[in-house]
Protein backbone atom coordinates (compact mmCIF):
# COMPACT_ATOMS: atom_id res chain seq x y z
CA UNK A 1 0.00 0.00 0.00
CA UNK A 2 2.87 2.33 0.82
CA UNK A 3 4.42 1.56 -2.56
CA UNK A 4 1.19 2.46 -4.34
CA UNK A 5 1.05 5.81 -2.52
CA UNK A 6 4.61 6.57 -3.60
CA UNK A 7 3.62 5.82 -7.19
CA UNK A 8 0.55 8.07 -6.94
CA UNK A 9 2.66 10.90 -5.53
CA UNK A 10 5.24 10.52 -8.31
CA UNK A 11 2.52 10.56 -10.98
CA UNK A 12 0.99 13.68 -9.48
CA UNK A 13 4.36 15.44 -9.31
CA UNK A 14 5.22 14.66 -12.93
CA UNK A 15 1.85 15.54 -14.43
CA UNK A 16 1.29 18.71 -12.39
CA UNK A 17 4.69 20.13 -13.24
CA UNK A 18 4.13 19.65 -16.98
CA UNK A 19 1.98 22.80 -16.96
CA UNK A 20 5.04 25.09 -16.67
CA UNK A 21 7.78 24.18 -19.14
CA UNK A 22 11.36 25.10 -18.23
CA UNK A 23 12.93 27.04 -21.15
CA UNK A 24 15.96 25.46 -22.81
CA UNK A 25 18.33 28.26 -21.80
CA UNK A 26 17.74 27.33 -18.13
CA UNK A 27 18.61 23.65 -18.51
CA UNK A 28 22.42 23.85 -18.45
CA UNK A 29 22.63 21.77 -15.24
CA UNK A 30 20.57 19.03 -16.83
CA UNK A 31 23.18 18.58 -19.58
CA UNK A 32 25.82 17.36 -17.13
CA UNK A 33 26.37 13.58 -17.53
CA UNK A 34 25.81 13.17 -13.77
CA UNK A 35 22.20 14.26 -14.34
CA UNK A 36 21.41 11.51 -16.82
CA UNK A 37 18.41 9.52 -15.59
CA UNK A 38 20.04 6.29 -16.73
CA UNK A 39 23.58 4.95 -16.59
CA UNK A 40 25.87 4.91 -19.60
CA UNK A 41 24.38 2.11 -21.79
CA UNK A 42 27.10 -0.53 -21.30
CA UNK A 43 27.17 0.06 -17.55
CA UNK A 44 23.37 -0.14 -17.44
CA UNK A 45 23.48 -3.42 -19.39
CA UNK A 46 25.88 -5.14 -17.02
CA UNK A 47 23.93 -3.94 -13.98
CA UNK A 48 20.64 -5.07 -15.49
CA UNK A 49 22.09 -8.49 -16.19
CA UNK A 50 23.36 -8.78 -12.62
CA UNK A 51 19.87 -8.23 -11.25
CA UNK A 52 17.88 -10.02 -13.94
CA UNK A 53 19.78 -13.26 -13.41
CA UNK A 54 19.76 -13.17 -9.61
CA UNK A 55 16.32 -11.84 -8.74
CA UNK A 56 13.05 -13.30 -9.96
CA UNK A 57 11.67 -9.88 -10.83
CA UNK A 58 13.08 -9.20 -14.29
CA UNK A 59 11.18 -7.92 -17.29
CA UNK A 60 8.31 -5.59 -17.79
CA UNK A 61 10.44 -2.48 -18.20
CA UNK A 62 11.86 -2.64 -21.67
CA UNK A 63 14.48 -5.29 -21.05
CA UNK A 64 13.98 -8.78 -22.33
CA UNK A 65 13.02 -11.25 -19.63
CA UNK A 66 14.62 -14.45 -20.75
CA UNK A 67 17.21 -14.15 -23.48
CA UNK A 68 20.74 -14.87 -22.42
CA UNK A 69 21.29 -17.14 -19.50
CA UNK A 70 18.14 -19.20 -19.85
CA UNK A 71 17.58 -19.09 -16.11
CA UNK A 72 14.51 -16.86 -15.98
CA UNK B 1 7.18 0.91 -47.00
CA UNK B 2 10.13 0.92 -44.63
CA UNK B 3 9.88 -0.32 -41.04
CA UNK B 4 10.17 3.23 -39.75
CA UNK B 5 7.37 4.43 -41.98
CA UNK B 6 5.29 1.43 -40.97
CA UNK B 7 5.81 2.33 -37.30
CA UNK B 8 4.47 5.80 -37.95
CA UNK B 9 1.56 4.48 -39.96
CA UNK B 10 0.50 2.50 -36.90
CA UNK B 11 1.15 5.33 -34.45
CA UNK B 12 -0.31 8.18 -36.46
CA UNK B 13 -1.93 7.09 -39.74
CA UNK B 14 -3.80 10.32 -40.44
CA UNK B 15 -0.63 12.38 -40.32
CA UNK B 16 1.18 9.96 -42.59
CA UNK B 17 -1.57 9.99 -45.21
CA UNK B 18 -1.96 13.75 -45.07
CA UNK B 19 1.54 14.67 -46.11
CA UNK B 20 3.62 11.63 -46.84
CA UNK B 21 6.09 13.12 -49.28
CA UNK B 22 6.67 16.43 -47.54
CA UNK B 23 6.86 15.09 -44.00
CA UNK B 24 9.83 13.36 -42.40
CA UNK B 25 8.26 9.98 -42.97
CA UNK B 26 8.13 9.73 -46.76
CA UNK B 27 9.87 6.74 -48.31
CA UNK B 28 12.07 8.93 -50.52
CA UNK B 29 13.22 11.02 -47.58
CA UNK B 30 14.06 7.99 -45.46
CA UNK B 31 15.88 6.29 -48.35
CA UNK B 32 17.83 9.49 -49.07
CA UNK B 33 18.93 9.58 -45.44
CA UNK B 34 19.96 5.93 -45.56
CA UNK B 35 22.06 6.57 -48.65
CA UNK B 36 24.46 8.94 -46.89
CA UNK B 37 27.89 7.74 -45.75
CA UNK B 38 28.56 6.33 -42.28
CA UNK B 39 30.42 8.44 -39.76
CA UNK B 40 31.73 6.93 -36.52
CA UNK B 41 30.56 8.97 -33.52
CA UNK B 42 31.79 6.92 -30.59
CA UNK B 43 33.48 3.68 -29.57
CA UNK B 44 32.99 2.39 -26.04
CA UNK B 45 34.45 -0.72 -24.47
CA UNK B 46 33.50 -2.15 -21.13
CA UNK B 47 35.05 -5.06 -19.23
CA UNK B 48 33.39 -6.49 -16.13
CA UNK B 49 34.40 -9.29 -13.79
CA UNK B 50 31.87 -11.00 -11.50
CA UNK B 51 33.02 -13.25 -8.67
CA UNK B 52 30.07 -15.05 -7.07
CA UNK B 53 29.82 -17.16 -3.92
CA UNK B 54 26.80 -18.87 -2.38
CA UNK B 55 24.38 -21.78 -2.39
CA UNK B 56 20.93 -22.49 -3.78
CA UNK B 57 18.38 -25.29 -3.37
CA UNK B 58 18.04 -25.68 -7.15
CA UNK B 59 21.68 -26.79 -7.34
CA UNK B 60 22.80 -30.34 -6.70
CA UNK B 61 26.10 -31.29 -5.15
CA UNK B 62 25.31 -30.45 -1.51
CA UNK B 63 26.21 -32.85 1.31
CA UNK B 64 22.74 -34.45 1.10
CA UNK B 65 20.17 -34.53 -1.74
CA UNK B 66 18.04 -31.94 0.05
CA UNK B 67 20.92 -29.59 0.87
CA UNK B 68 21.55 -26.50 -1.26
CA UNK B 69 24.37 -26.86 -3.77
CA UNK B 70 27.08 -24.41 -4.68
CA UNK B 71 26.36 -21.37 -6.87
CA UNK B 72 30.02 -20.44 -7.12
CA UNK B 73 30.92 -18.92 -10.48
CA UNK B 74 33.05 -16.29 -12.14
CA UNK B 75 32.04 -14.24 -15.17
CA UNK B 76 34.24 -12.24 -17.50
CA UNK B 77 32.07 -9.91 -19.60
CA UNK B 78 33.61 -7.67 -22.26
CA UNK B 79 31.28 -5.38 -24.25
CA UNK B 80 31.81 -3.01 -27.14
CA UNK B 81 29.46 -0.36 -28.50
CA UNK B 82 29.83 1.49 -31.80
CA UNK B 83 27.64 4.45 -32.73
CA UNK B 84 27.51 5.67 -36.33
CA UNK B 85 25.56 8.45 -37.94
CA UNK B 86 24.37 8.16 -41.52
CA UNK B 87 23.49 11.61 -42.78
CA UNK B 88 21.66 14.00 -40.52
CA UNK B 89 18.73 11.77 -39.63
CA UNK B 90 19.91 8.20 -39.15
CA UNK B 91 21.92 6.81 -36.21
CA UNK B 92 23.07 3.21 -35.87
CA UNK B 93 24.08 1.63 -32.57
CA UNK B 94 25.85 -1.72 -32.66
CA UNK B 95 26.30 -3.44 -29.30
CA UNK B 96 28.29 -6.66 -28.85
CA UNK B 97 28.40 -8.16 -25.34
CA UNK B 98 30.30 -11.40 -24.65
CA UNK B 99 30.07 -13.64 -21.57
CA UNK B 100 32.69 -16.12 -20.45
CA UNK B 101 31.33 -18.04 -17.46
CA UNK B 102 33.30 -20.60 -15.49
CA UNK B 103 31.84 -22.97 -12.90
CA UNK B 104 28.51 -22.00 -14.47
CA UNK B 105 25.40 -22.94 -12.50
CA UNK B 106 26.77 -26.02 -10.72
CA UNK B 107 23.49 -27.85 -11.06
CA UNK B 108 22.75 -31.32 -12.27
CA UNK B 109 24.62 -30.85 -15.50
CA UNK B 110 27.84 -29.93 -13.79
CA UNK B 111 27.52 -32.61 -11.17
CA UNK B 112 26.68 -35.29 -13.68
CA UNK B 113 28.60 -34.34 -16.81
CA UNK B 114 30.43 -31.03 -16.23
CA UNK B 115 28.85 -29.85 -19.47
CA UNK B 116 28.38 -26.27 -18.37
CA UNK B 117 31.44 -25.67 -16.22
CA UNK B 118 32.67 -23.33 -18.94
CA UNK B 119 30.14 -21.42 -21.03
CA UNK B 120 30.79 -18.79 -23.65
CA UNK B 121 28.01 -16.65 -25.01
CA UNK B 122 27.81 -13.61 -27.22
CA UNK B 123 25.23 -11.28 -28.73
CA UNK B 124 25.03 -8.69 -31.43
CA UNK B 125 22.34 -6.07 -31.19
CA UNK B 126 21.72 -3.45 -33.88
CA UNK B 127 19.47 -0.43 -33.34
CA UNK B 128 18.74 2.08 -36.09
CA UNK B 129 17.11 5.37 -35.16
CA UNK B 130 15.51 7.64 -37.71
CA UNK B 131 14.91 11.26 -36.74
CA UNK B 132 11.68 12.01 -38.57
CA UNK B 133 11.60 15.62 -37.45
CA UNK B 134 12.73 17.70 -34.51
CA UNK B 135 10.22 16.05 -32.21
CA UNK B 136 9.98 12.46 -33.36
CA UNK B 137 12.52 9.60 -33.32
CA UNK B 138 11.66 6.11 -34.53
CA UNK B 139 13.92 3.15 -33.77
CA UNK B 140 14.01 -0.43 -34.94
CA UNK B 141 16.11 -3.01 -33.16
CA UNK B 142 17.13 -6.60 -33.78
CA UNK B 143 19.61 -8.92 -32.15
CA UNK B 144 20.79 -12.47 -31.82
CA UNK B 145 22.35 -14.26 -28.84
CA UNK B 146 24.42 -17.43 -29.19
CA UNK B 147 25.47 -19.58 -26.23
CA UNK B 148 26.57 -23.22 -25.98
CA UNK B 149 23.12 -24.76 -25.35
CA UNK B 150 21.09 -21.65 -26.15
CA UNK B 151 19.94 -19.39 -29.01
CA UNK B 152 17.88 -16.24 -28.72
CA UNK B 153 16.56 -13.71 -31.22
CA UNK B 154 14.94 -10.38 -30.46
CA UNK B 155 13.30 -7.71 -32.53
CA UNK B 156 11.54 -4.54 -31.56
CA UNK B 157 10.67 -0.98 -32.34
CA UNK B 158 10.12 2.21 -30.42
CA UNK B 159 8.86 5.72 -31.00
CA UNK B 160 9.75 8.80 -29.01
CA UNK B 161 8.13 12.23 -29.27
CA UNK B 162 9.12 15.39 -27.46
CA UNK B 163 6.93 18.34 -26.58
CA UNK B 164 7.44 21.85 -25.18
CA UNK B 165 11.01 22.33 -26.44
CA UNK B 166 11.98 18.83 -25.27
CA UNK B 167 10.77 19.51 -21.72
CA UNK B 168 8.42 16.55 -22.05
CA UNK B 169 9.22 13.30 -23.84
CA UNK B 170 6.72 10.51 -24.41
CA UNK B 171 7.91 7.11 -25.60
CA UNK B 172 6.47 3.72 -26.46
CA UNK B 173 8.21 0.49 -27.40
CA UNK B 174 7.53 -3.12 -28.24
CA UNK B 175 9.99 -6.02 -28.10
CA UNK B 176 9.65 -9.68 -29.06
CA UNK B 177 12.17 -12.26 -27.79
CA UNK B 178 12.33 -15.87 -28.95
CA UNK B 179 14.55 -18.32 -27.04
CA UNK B 180 15.43 -21.78 -28.40
CA UNK B 181 17.55 -24.05 -26.24
CA UNK B 182 18.57 -27.63 -25.48
CA UNK B 183 16.31 -29.58 -23.15
CA UNK B 184 18.11 -31.46 -20.36
CA UNK B 185 16.79 -33.54 -17.52
CA UNK B 186 18.12 -33.12 -13.99
CA UNK B 187 20.66 -35.88 -14.61
CA UNK B 188 22.23 -33.91 -17.46
CA UNK B 189 20.84 -36.03 -20.31
CA UNK B 190 19.92 -34.03 -23.40
CA UNK B 191 16.51 -34.65 -24.98
CA UNK B 192 15.92 -32.43 -27.99
CA UNK B 193 15.10 -28.74 -27.91
CA UNK B 194 12.52 -26.51 -26.35
CA UNK B 195 11.62 -22.83 -26.60
CA UNK B 196 9.79 -19.85 -25.18
CA UNK B 197 8.84 -16.43 -26.41
CA UNK B 198 8.30 -13.16 -24.65
CA UNK B 199 6.51 -9.98 -25.70
CA UNK B 200 7.17 -6.70 -23.93
CA UNK B 201 5.41 -3.37 -24.33
CA UNK B 202 6.39 -0.17 -22.52
CA UNK B 203 5.14 3.39 -22.16
CA UNK B 204 7.28 6.18 -20.76
CA UNK B 205 7.09 9.84 -19.81
CA UNK B 206 10.10 12.04 -19.05
CA UNK B 207 9.58 15.56 -17.71
CA UNK B 208 11.90 18.45 -16.92
CA UNK B 209 10.43 19.62 -13.61
CA UNK B 210 12.72 22.54 -12.77
CA UNK B 211 16.05 23.87 -14.15
CA UNK B 212 17.77 21.39 -11.80
CA UNK B 213 15.32 18.48 -11.67
CA UNK B 214 14.27 15.89 -14.23
CA UNK B 215 12.07 12.84 -13.65
CA UNK B 216 10.60 9.97 -15.59
CA UNK B 217 8.04 7.27 -15.13
CA UNK B 218 7.72 4.06 -17.17
CA UNK B 219 5.24 1.22 -17.22
CA UNK B 220 5.98 -2.08 -18.91
CA UNK B 221 4.30 -5.40 -19.36
CA UNK B 222 5.92 -8.68 -20.42
CA UNK B 223 4.04 -11.83 -21.41
CA UNK B 224 6.04 -15.04 -21.71
CA UNK B 225 4.96 -18.43 -22.96
CA UNK B 226 6.75 -21.75 -23.35
CA UNK B 227 9.37 -23.53 -21.26
CA UNK B 228 9.98 -21.09 -18.44
CA UNK B 229 12.96 -22.72 -16.72
CA UNK B 230 16.39 -23.78 -17.90
CA UNK B 231 15.19 -27.44 -17.65
CA UNK B 232 18.06 -28.74 -15.52
CA UNK B 233 17.31 -27.02 -12.20
CA UNK B 234 16.11 -29.54 -9.63
CA UNK B 235 13.87 -29.52 -6.54
CA UNK B 236 14.55 -31.46 -3.29
CA UNK B 237 11.62 -33.83 -2.64
CA UNK B 238 10.08 -34.55 0.77
CA UNK B 239 9.94 -38.21 -0.23
CA UNK B 240 13.72 -38.17 -0.76
CA UNK B 241 15.93 -37.45 -3.74
CA UNK B 242 15.31 -34.71 -6.26
CA UNK B 243 12.83 -34.05 -9.05
CA UNK B 244 12.50 -31.65 -11.96
CA UNK B 245 10.97 -28.19 -11.60
CA UNK B 246 7.26 -28.03 -12.44
CA UNK B 247 6.54 -24.51 -13.74
CA UNK B 248 3.53 -22.82 -15.36
CA UNK B 249 3.79 -22.45 -19.14
CA UNK B 250 3.00 -18.74 -19.03
CA UNK B 251 4.05 -15.72 -17.05
CA UNK B 252 2.73 -12.15 -17.04
CA UNK B 253 4.99 -9.49 -15.52
CA UNK B 254 4.28 -5.83 -14.76
CA UNK B 255 6.85 -3.21 -13.82
CA UNK B 256 6.45 0.46 -12.93
CA UNK B 257 9.66 2.49 -12.74
CA UNK B 258 10.21 6.02 -11.46
CA UNK B 259 13.51 7.91 -11.80
CA UNK B 260 14.57 11.36 -10.69
CA UNK B 261 17.80 13.35 -10.96
CA UNK B 262 18.39 16.45 -8.84
CA UNK B 263 21.31 18.84 -9.27
CA UNK B 264 22.93 19.78 -5.95
CA UNK B 265 24.35 23.29 -5.32
CA UNK B 266 27.86 22.02 -4.52
CA UNK B 267 28.38 20.65 -8.07
CA UNK B 268 26.84 17.33 -7.18
CA UNK B 269 23.86 15.30 -8.28
CA UNK B 270 21.45 12.92 -6.60
CA UNK B 271 19.76 10.21 -8.63
CA UNK B 272 16.83 8.26 -7.21
CA UNK B 273 15.24 5.12 -8.62
CA UNK B 274 12.19 3.12 -7.59
CA UNK B 275 10.73 0.06 -9.29
CA UNK B 276 7.57 -1.81 -8.43
CA UNK B 277 7.18 -5.27 -9.93
CA UNK B 278 4.40 -7.86 -9.80
CA UNK B 279 3.75 -11.05 -11.74
CA UNK B 280 1.18 -13.83 -11.81
CA UNK B 281 3.57 -16.31 -10.17
CA UNK B 282 3.07 -14.46 -6.90
CA UNK B 283 6.24 -12.36 -6.88
CA UNK B 284 5.87 -8.75 -5.74
CA UNK B 285 9.09 -6.74 -5.59
CA UNK B 286 10.25 -3.27 -4.64
CA UNK B 287 13.66 -1.96 -5.70
CA UNK B 288 15.07 1.36 -4.53
CA UNK B 289 18.35 2.98 -5.41
CA UNK B 290 20.09 6.23 -4.54
CA UNK B 291 23.25 7.44 -6.25
CA UNK B 292 25.13 10.48 -5.02
CA UNK B 293 27.69 12.04 -7.34
CA UNK B 294 30.21 14.81 -6.88
CA UNK B 295 32.05 16.68 -9.62
CA UNK B 296 35.65 17.29 -8.58
CA UNK B 297 36.75 19.07 -11.77
CA UNK B 298 35.28 19.74 -15.23
CA UNK B 299 36.75 16.39 -16.36
CA UNK B 300 36.26 14.21 -13.28
CA UNK B 301 33.43 13.10 -11.02
CA UNK B 302 32.96 10.37 -8.44
CA UNK B 303 29.82 8.59 -7.31
CA UNK B 304 28.54 6.26 -4.63
CA UNK B 305 25.46 4.07 -4.93
CA UNK B 306 23.21 2.04 -2.64
CA UNK B 307 20.40 -0.25 -3.85
CA UNK B 308 17.89 -2.24 -1.82
CA UNK B 309 15.64 -4.90 -3.31
CA UNK B 310 12.97 -6.95 -1.59
CA UNK B 311 10.70 -9.56 -3.11
CA UNK B 312 8.15 -12.15 -2.09
CA UNK B 313 8.70 -15.63 -3.45
CA UNK B 314 6.84 -17.45 -6.18
CA UNK B 315 3.70 -19.02 -4.69
CA UNK B 316 5.02 -22.50 -5.52
CA UNK B 317 8.58 -21.97 -4.26
CA UNK B 318 9.67 -24.69 -1.85
CA UNK B 319 13.01 -25.98 -0.61
CA UNK B 320 11.35 -29.38 -0.02
CA UNK B 321 8.48 -30.28 -2.35
CA UNK B 322 5.60 -32.33 -0.94
CA UNK B 323 4.37 -35.36 -2.88
CA UNK B 324 1.75 -34.57 -5.50
CA UNK B 325 2.61 -30.88 -5.89
CA UNK B 326 1.44 -29.73 -9.33
CA UNK B 327 3.90 -26.82 -9.39
CA UNK B 328 7.26 -26.67 -7.64
CA UNK B 329 10.48 -24.71 -7.86
CA UNK B 330 13.48 -24.40 -5.54
CA UNK B 331 15.38 -21.79 -7.56
CA UNK B 332 16.85 -19.36 -5.03
CA UNK B 333 16.16 -16.46 -7.45
CA UNK B 334 12.43 -17.13 -7.01
CA UNK B 335 12.57 -17.34 -3.20
CA UNK B 336 11.51 -14.55 -0.83
CA UNK B 337 14.67 -12.47 -0.46
CA UNK B 338 16.22 -9.09 0.18
CA UNK B 339 19.36 -7.87 -1.51
CA UNK B 340 21.68 -4.92 -1.12
CA UNK B 341 24.22 -3.42 -3.50
CA UNK B 342 26.87 -0.94 -2.41
CA UNK B 343 29.28 0.57 -4.91
CA UNK B 344 31.32 3.45 -6.12
CA UNK B 345 32.77 4.78 -9.36
CA UNK B 346 35.22 7.29 -10.80
CA UNK B 347 34.47 8.82 -14.20
CA UNK B 348 36.79 10.89 -16.40
CA UNK B 349 35.69 12.67 -19.59
CA UNK B 350 38.89 14.23 -20.87
CA UNK B 351 38.69 16.60 -23.85
CA UNK B 352 41.13 15.85 -26.68
CA UNK B 353 42.17 17.64 -29.82
CA UNK B 354 41.84 16.55 -33.44
CA UNK B 355 39.60 13.66 -34.49
CA UNK B 356 39.10 12.45 -30.93
CA UNK B 357 36.75 14.81 -29.14
CA UNK B 358 36.61 13.12 -25.72
CA UNK B 359 38.33 10.27 -23.90
CA UNK B 360 35.98 8.47 -21.50
CA UNK B 361 37.36 6.38 -18.62
CA UNK B 362 35.32 4.79 -15.85
CA UNK B 363 36.20 2.46 -12.98
CA UNK B 364 33.39 0.97 -10.88
CA UNK B 365 33.36 -1.49 -7.96
CA UNK B 366 30.27 -3.02 -6.36
CA UNK B 367 29.33 -5.66 -3.83
CA UNK B 368 25.99 -7.44 -4.07
CA UNK B 369 24.68 -9.41 -1.08
CA UNK B 370 21.49 -11.45 -0.97
CA UNK B 371 19.84 -12.69 2.23
CA UNK B 372 19.54 -16.26 0.97
CA UNK B 373 23.27 -16.95 0.73
CA UNK B 374 24.58 -15.22 -2.38
CA UNK B 375 27.40 -12.69 -2.63
CA UNK B 376 28.91 -11.14 -5.74
CA UNK B 377 31.92 -8.86 -6.10
CA UNK B 378 31.92 -6.81 -9.30
CA UNK B 379 34.66 -4.73 -10.89
CA UNK B 380 34.21 -2.96 -14.22
CA UNK B 381 36.39 -0.76 -16.37
CA UNK B 382 35.21 1.33 -19.33
CA UNK B 383 37.26 3.06 -22.01
CA UNK B 384 35.88 4.99 -24.93
CA UNK B 385 36.32 7.73 -27.49
CA UNK B 386 33.79 10.19 -28.80
CA UNK B 387 34.63 11.71 -32.18
Kindly summarize this structure in a few lines.
Chain A has 72 residues and is mainly alpha-helical. Chain A has helices spanning 2-17, 41-52.
Overview of the structural elements:
- The complex is a heterodimer of chains A (72) and B (387).
- In chain A, 39% of the residues lie in helices and 0% in strands.
- With 72 residues, chain A is mainly alpha-helical.
- The longest helix of chain B is centred in the first third of the chain and has 9 residues, at 3-11.
- In chain B, the strands form two sheets. A 16-stranded antiparallel beta barrel of chain B has the order 1-3-4-5-6-7-8-9-10-13-14-15-16-17-18-19. Chain B has a two-stranded antiparallel sheet with strand order 11-12.
- In chain B, 7% of the residues lie in helices and 62% in strands.
- Chain B has helices at residues 3-11, 13-18, 27-34, 108-112, and strands spanning 38-56, 69-70, 73-86, 90-102, 118-131, 136-147, 150-163, 168-184, 190-210, 213-226, 234-236, 242-244, 250-264, 268-279, 284-297, 300-311, 337-351, 358-370, 374-386.
- At the A-B interface, helix 1 and helix 2 of A face strand 1, strand 3, strand 4, strand 7 and strand 8 of B.
Our Rg estimate of chain B from Cα atoms comes to 24 Å
Characterize the largest beta sheet of chain B: strand count, sense, and whether it forms a barrel: 16 strands, antiparallel, barrel
Shape of chain B: globular
The largest interface is: A-B, 55 and 103 residues
Q: How many angstroms separate the termini of chain A?
A: 27 Å
- Amount of beta strand of chain B: over 45%
Unreliable residue runs of chain B:
1-22, 106-115
Number of helical stretches of at least 4 residues of chain B: 4
Summary tags:
heterodimer, A: 72 residues, mainly alpha, 2 helices, flat, disordered C terminus, B: 387 residues, mainly beta, 16-stranded antiparallel beta barrel, two-stranded antiparallel sheet, 4 helices, 19 strands, globular
List the helices and strands and how they pair.
The complex is a heterodimer of chains A (72) and B (387).
Chain A: H1 2-17, H2 41-52
Chain B: H1 3-11, H2 13-18, H3 27-34, E1 38-56, E2 69-70, E3 73-86, E4 90-102, H4 108-112, E5 118-131, E6 136-147, E7 150-163, E8 168-184, E9 190-210, E10 213-226, E11 234-236, E12 242-244, E13 250-264, E14 268-279, E15 284-297, E16 300-311, E17 337-351, E18 358-370, E19 374-386
Antiparallel strand pairs in B: 1-2, 1-3, 1-19, 3-4, 4-5, 5-6, 6-7, 7-8, 8-9, 9-10, 10-13, 11-12, 13-14, 14-15, 15-16, 16-17, 17-18, 18-19
Amino acid sequence: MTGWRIVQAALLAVTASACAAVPQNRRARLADPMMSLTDEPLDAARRQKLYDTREGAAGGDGASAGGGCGCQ
Amino acid sequence: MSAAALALAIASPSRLLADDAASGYGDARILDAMGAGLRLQSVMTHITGFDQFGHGYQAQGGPTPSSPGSERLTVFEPQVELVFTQGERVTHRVWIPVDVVTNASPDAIDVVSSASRHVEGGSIDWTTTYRADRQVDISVRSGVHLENPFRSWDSGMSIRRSYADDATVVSASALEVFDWFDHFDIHGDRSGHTDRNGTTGTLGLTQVLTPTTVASINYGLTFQEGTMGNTWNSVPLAAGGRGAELLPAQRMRHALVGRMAQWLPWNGALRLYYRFYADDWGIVAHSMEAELMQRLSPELYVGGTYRFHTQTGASFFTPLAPPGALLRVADSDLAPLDSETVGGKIVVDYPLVGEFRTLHLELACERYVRTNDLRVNIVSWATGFRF
